[in-house]
Amino acid sequence: QLQLVESGGGLVRPGGSLRLSCAASRFTLGGYAIGWFRQAPGKEREWVSCISTSGVSTNYADSVKGRFTISRDNARNTVYLEMNSLKPEDTAVYYCAATRSYYYCSGGVHTAMDYWGKGTLVTVSS
After folding, report:
1. Coarse DSSP helix, strand, coil percentages of the chain, rounded to the nearest 5 percent
2. For residue 60, what pLDDT is reported?
3. pLDDT digit string (tens) for 15-25?
4. CA distance 1 to 41
5. What are φ and ψ of residue 92, in 5° steps?
6. What is the CA radius of gyration of the chain?
7. What is the largest CA-CA distance in the chain?
8. pLDDT tens string 75-88
9. How far apart are CA 97 and CA 117, in angstroms?
């Protein structure tokens, strides 16, 4: 069973920073575009960002553009989401997901993602 595992979530004050990690077991992330999604309590799942297999191409939701940075280290089989200037509205469970298609990933088509992690909770509160 291919698995993605998120880590790095936690409680942070508004304006603070966190770095999330998405690691893979039993497969190589390098062959997949990786997306980050989030789901706040009582809300639908929301696309956050996507990175291509090489890392050259990235895309962000308007709500996080300029504050979040996605990157990957294929040698470590890990994708990161650096989150700065966090706001209370960023509070959510964050999921990473993998797909062969950067096109669908960058368009936030969550139904096109092939593999999902179980999520990590980010809480932004004073």
Report:
1. 10, 50, 40
2. 97
3. 999 999 999 98
4. 28
5. 180, 170
6. 13
7. 40
8. 999 999 999 999 99
9. 6
